[in-house]
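FORM 12-B: Structure-to-Sequence Request
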């Protein structure tokens, strides 16, 4: 049985640096036999979370839009690759909204700490592109802030982190540095 990869693009630019990172991951995964489904969040209909919290009990959002498709893919994949650009040391609004909308899919609320609803057998890889050059992208908390926000969602959901890659100083360039390409490719060997 082929392993399933869910590739999520959280950038509005289909041909930018963040998309190039995701494309590298998708090609590496396909070359190693993964079945890949790519979702471009900016092309999906995703209303904003209303904070009703019904999903915490039902495991499904009450808003009828593309979140149901993404939630089903998330539940059944072996690995997720989330590629999101760094915006103000965080993720873009559509990625944060995705996390909000997947509350009931990802976790069960308890009296103490949330209980994961996804599997520790599922893995995740985080990719981000940041305009700030290295080492300032890391030292000033830009790319590390974006990675922290993404990691928090998947960790709370119960999934296993396999790593991350950052393309610092990415402004105006969709051409990835070779070392970044190699790092991404290693996650699929």
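FORM 12-B RESPONSE
SEQUENCE OUT:
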């Amino acid at each position: 049985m082929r392993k399933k990869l869910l590739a999520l693009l959280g950038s509005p630019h289909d041909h930018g640096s963040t998309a190039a990172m995701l494309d590298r991951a998708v090609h590496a995964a396909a070359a190693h036999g993964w079945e890949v489904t790519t979702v471009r969040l900016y092309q999906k209909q995703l209303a904003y979370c209303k904070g009703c919290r019904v999903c915490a009990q039902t495991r499904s959002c009450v808003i009828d839009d593309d979140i149901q498709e993404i939630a089903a893919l998330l539940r059944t994949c072996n690995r997720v690759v989330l590629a999101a650009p760094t915006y103000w040391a965080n993720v873009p609004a559509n990625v944060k909204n995705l996390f909000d909308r997947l509350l009931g899919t990802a976790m069960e609320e308890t009296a103490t700490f949330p209980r994961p609803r996804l599997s520790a057998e599922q893995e995740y890889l985080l990719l981000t592109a940041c305009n700030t050059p290295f080492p300032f992208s890391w030292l000033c908390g830009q790319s590390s802030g974006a990675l922290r926000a993404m990691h928090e969602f998947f960790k709370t959901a119960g999934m296993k982190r396999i790593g991350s890659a950052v393309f610092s100083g990415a402004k105006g360039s969709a051409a990835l540095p070779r070392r970044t390409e190699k790092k991404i490719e290693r996650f699929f060997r």
